[in-house]
Design a protein that fits this description.
The structure is a homodimer of 191-residue chains. With 191 residues, the first copy, chain A, is mainly alpha-helical. Chain A contains nine helices and no strands. The first copy, chain A, binds a DNA duplex (30 and 30 nucleotides) through helix 1, helix 2 and helix 3.
Chain lengths: 191, 191
DNA sequence: ACTTTAGCGGAACAGTGTTCCGCAAACAAA
DNA sequence: TTTGTTTGCGGAACACTGTTCCGCTAAAGT
């Protein structure tokens, strides 16, 4: 049961939690590419312990962002009953952007072609894309979105637009995403 | 003069050229993050020689892309007399996208916050932004572009949209850039 | 002819991710 | 309890990066 405070297994679970907390902190402070040793140090454990719980560095990254991704999915499910699909999509993308821009590590991680971060990629494919896809479909059905837009490409593009840098900050990213969305609405004009 | 075939200086210039050629090849084959040793090997020199000519790895990257950036600037200057500024901007952005997508290393390099690649960044600031800025200004003057759009943010956004990955290829990037541009045109509609 | 110096190659150093191995403590068996 | 087994742990060790350093050769200078 849940009261196994002193057992070996409980201890392991505690260090795992400590690692997740430490990693999340270090990621926001120094980015996703922060050294494993720093994370281990912050959690007060040795590097070996990190690899015991997360065989690859990338798995730790994925674990850190997983529940945050789940939050995005949850929001999409809330919005999926909305009477105004276009507005719902806007809202959701807005939240997604907020998320990407705040935990600025995720944007980099999503873009990275690191083979290990593939799992994060497929996590997005498995969860985020279907969730977003529903909103997209409904918007398309109402004629509020160009049918050629796929949920995947859209999310990918939004993710890329949220990669910040010197002279290109949060507001710029938000503005550009808005413009992109405007361009994704059904083309009134020709061709 | 130019006929110093056997001099020491001429030899140095030759190895420098060989390095640039080798680096360009390696960059398209394996990306900008390819190991220095591979480049040295391809050029048939030792690593020390690479660092003699390019004190930091990043300087080599900059040198490789510099003249390709110059090509983009030249195109912008050609187009700046065009009677249709909106069309001209479209054409130029199209060429820029083609460029980014082909030498796919540059996109990564431009996005990277690597301190050393700052010089590439400022190269873009110094040359590309003014060149593009002219086209943007003219398009704005004709009312074909939202005045709130700055050349820098636009190029930055386009650069980000051109970061490819599995399931997000050249065509996706091109389509998304077109949509972004559509969203940058003067907002007919409300707010 | 002798000295100086530019250009070069590659060993050596430093910082990453990752693996390996010995150890101590919790558990299982006797 | 005593003995053996397993789990979780720490940190040294390894492989692969960028980068520096140093000795060597041959051209340039005297």
């Amino acid at each position: 049961m849940a009261g196994d405070e002193g057992t070996r297994e409980a201890g392991a679970r505690r260090t795992r939690e400590a690692l997740l907390v430490a990693a999340a902190e270090v990621f926001v402070e120094r980015g996703v590419q922060a050294p494993v040793r720093d994370i281990a140090g912050r959690a007060g454990v040795g590097v070996g312990t990190v690899y015991r719980h997360f065989p690859e560095r990338a798995e730790l990254v994925v674990a850190v962002y997983r529940h945050q991704i789940d939050d995005c999915v949850a929001l999409a499910e809330e919005l999926r009953e909305s009477p105004d699909p276009g507005e719902a999509l806007d809202q959701w993308i807005g939240a997604f952007v907020e998320f990407l821009v705040t935990k600025h590590g995720l944007g980099v991680a999503l873009q990275s072609d690191d083979a290990g971060l593939q799992s994060l990629h497929s996590l997005m494919l498995d969860k985020l894309v279907p969730a977003c896809g529903l909103l997209v479909e409904r918007a398309v059905a109402r004629g509020e979105l160009d049918p050629a837009v796929t949920a995947y490409a859209l999310m990918r593009a939004v993710g890329n637009l949220c990669l910040l840098g010197p002279g290109y900050d949060r507001e710029d990213a938000q503005a550009m995403v808005e413009r992109l969305l405007a361009g994704c609405r059904s083309t009134h004009g020709g061709q």
